[in-house]
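Practice problem: predict the structure.
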Amino acid sequence: LCLCKGTRTQAADRLPKPSLRAENGSVVPHGGAVTLRCRGSWEAEDWQLEKRGGYKWSPKAGRPAGNEVEFSLPSVTPHNAGTYQCLYRHSSSWWSERSDPLELVVTGKAHPPPRLGSLRVSTALGPSSAQPGPECPSGSALP
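Answer:
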């Protein structure tokens, strides 16, 4: 038995891969609501939802509690359709690998895209607000 203090490697800090699912399915009618749930480790401190194309969202204030975070889209349009993935990290580690992709399909006719303010984020213990990531400036439209 060797108790050694050494440099931590990324492999040693590997976090379990999160899972991403859409409540009530990933095919949503235009104007319908959908909640995307990302589940990871209980020790997760930072969460992120990504949409292919460079858009990122994370819970705004404080550390979400629990091992799951919700991203709610209350009134979807075809602009919300696309491929989503989530990831998380602990304060002293690298980001986890991304979840398997979830393809969100919106059926119905197109309308102007919703504003970012229509995206709500909550943890397993209650709602909070969303904050755009570095590639989605505040006030920009969700694609």
